[in-house]
UniProtKB/TrEMBL annotation:
Keywords from the named record: Oxidoreductase
Enzyme Commission number(s) from the entry: 1.14.13.149
Organism classification: Bacteria, Pseudomonadati, Pseudomonadota, Alphaproteobacteria, Rhodobacterales
Record's keyword annotation contains Nucleotide-binding: no
The organism of origin for this protein: Aliiroseovarius pelagivivens
Name of the protein described by the UniProt record: 1,2-phenylacetyl-CoA epoxidase, subunit A
Length: 325
């Protein structure tokens, strides 16, 4: 189904329908699954929601790696709950994508074949416990900035999924900041670990918002359709502005010498990340891309017996129902 969709031609779409569709978007009406929508709108949503779902699921790996090594029982319970939440977010998002006519199995297959992306950030390793605090604080923090804006996205099921996800993400960011605060206010060795985590994760975190507006391929059309309601650079600036005072409060060094308050702009100036690194990572050449995809494909294959069992049970129940009718 999805394969046919992505090769479908949009050129024979009725201009009147297209005009009415855009008028609905301009009036801030939500588009619902059974409404008419341009094929390119549907495809853009499938790409973005699918990538987003994959990010939630792949995003469990760098943190899941630390569940067995969390320093206390309390931290272990918190981390376990957070990682489980990410699986739930993946499910809401795959369900939202399914309303557009693509199955979860199809999306997963495209991910495993390297034909769909997931967020660049999850291709970086989590090397010490402070990284887990930094992921919650910086990575979930960046995800929230993006996702709060997406609560207003024009596609109803995506927008509603975002509202629920944002509530849970707030807990994730709080637990991350709390964990890193303990390290930053702890022993000199713990503080050094916190600094090291911030140094390594700062630039990858600000890359999460995507390329600069001038390089972004999809932004213009996605903003016309209000799939995206704020630009990549606009959201990145908001994240930088809200995070610098938090780094200062922790007593950690700013990870970029270019960071300074700009009175005229009313924002912090900061240095661009290394965009060549970003484009390499999203092409599959980041430090952990191969491991992440292997882990996901192995998990999918190892779980085949569960899916088969559920399906057999479901089929048996359906057959019993039909026989009883
Ligand atoms: N990573 O034209 P644009 C989370 C690609 S959730 C990888 O600007 P667009 C929760 C882009 O796909 C994090 N690829 O693209 C959590 C396109 O390539 P394509 C995920 C990226 O779509 C926390 C090309 O570059 N959140 O972390 C990235 O208009 C902790 C050109 O870019 C979402 O997915 C990237 N960072 O804007 C879970 C939010 N950026 O497809 C576990 C929803 C860009 O043509 C633990 N998505 N690319 O081959 C969005 O808001 C948008 O898709 C953007 C990109 C803003 C990410």
């Amino acid at each position: 189904m999805y394969a046919q969709m992505i090769t479908a031609e949009a050129s024979d779409e009725d201009p009147k329908l297209l005009e009415e569709f855009q008028a609905r978007i301009d009036r801030d009406e939500k588009i619902e699954p059974k409404d008419w929508m341009p094929m390119a709108y549907r495809k853009t949503l499938i790409r973005q929601i699918g990538q987003h779902a994959h990010s939630e699921v792949v995003g469990q790996l760098p943190e899941g790696n630390w569940i067995t090594r969390a320093p206390t029982l309390e931290r272990k319970a918190i981390l376990l709950a957070k990682v489980q939440d990410e699986a739930g977010h993946g499910l809401y998002l795959y369900s939202a994508a399914e309303t557009l006519g693509v199955s979860r199995d199809e999306l997963v297959e495209l991910l495993h074949e390297g034909k769909m992306k997931y967020s660049s950030i999850f291709n970086y390793p989590t090397l010490n416990w402070a990284d887990i605090g930094a992921v919650g604080w910086l990575v979930d923090g960046a995800a929230i900035v993006n996702q709060v804006a997406l609560q207003r996205t024009s596609y109803g099921p995506y927008s509603r999924a975002m509202i629920r996800i944002c509530k849970e993400e707030s807990f994730h960011a709080r637990q991350g900041y709390h964990a890193i605060m303990q390290m930053a206010f702890g022993t000199p060795a713990q503080k050094a670990m916190a600094q090291d985590a911030v140094n390594r994760l700062w630039f990858p975190a600000i890359m999460m918002f995507g390329p600069s507006d001038s390089e972004s391929v999809h932004s213009e059309q996605s903003m016309t359709w209000k799939i995206k309601v704020r630009s990549n650079d606009d959201l990145r600036q908001q994240f930088v502005d809200q995070t610098i005072p938090q780094i200062e409060y922790l007593g950690l060094d700013l990870p970029d010498p270019g960071i300074k308050w700009n009175e005229e702009r009313g924002h912090y100036d900061y240095s661009d990340p290394d965009w060549s690194e970003f484009f390499n990572v999203i092409k599959g050449k980041g430090p952990c891309n191969v491991d992440r995809l292997n882990d996901r494909t192995n998990a999918w294959e190892d779980g085949a017996w569960v899916r088969d069992g559920l399906l057999a049970h479901g089929n048996k129940k359906a057959a019993a129902r039909t026989a009883a009718e």
